[in-house]
């Protein structure tokens, strides 16, 4: 699965994107974030406050309980503001 990072999440993780094989028990967005936090200190720091991280599955914004299903691309980013 392709994981893309944006804005300060990308800066803290240290990469723009990566492709990962996920364990079978990673089935929801919340599971994915928990798994990513175990990869290294950069991921753990970037995703420490899960409540502020926004997620899109195949370019559709979703909530943490959303199943990953056959998702091809996950995007993680901080909250956005408009104006």
TrEMBL record:
Q: Which domain of life is it from?
A: Bacteria
Coiled coil spans: none
Protein name as annotated: Molybdopterin synthase subunit MoaD
Taxonomic lineage is: Bacteria, Pseudomonadati, Pseudomonadota, Alphaproteobacteria, Hyphomicrobiales
């Amino acid at each position: 699965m392709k994981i893309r990072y944006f804005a300060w999440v990308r800066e803290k993780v240290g990469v723009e994107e990566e492709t990962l094989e996920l364990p079978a028990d990673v089935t929801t967005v919340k599971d994915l974030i928990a798994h990513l936090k175990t990869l290294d200190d950069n991921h753990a720091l970037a995703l420490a406050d899960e409540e502020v991280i926004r997620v899109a599955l195949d370019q559709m914004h979703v909530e943490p309980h959303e199943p990953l299903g056959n998702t091809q691309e996950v995007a993680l980013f901080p909250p956005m503001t408009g104006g």
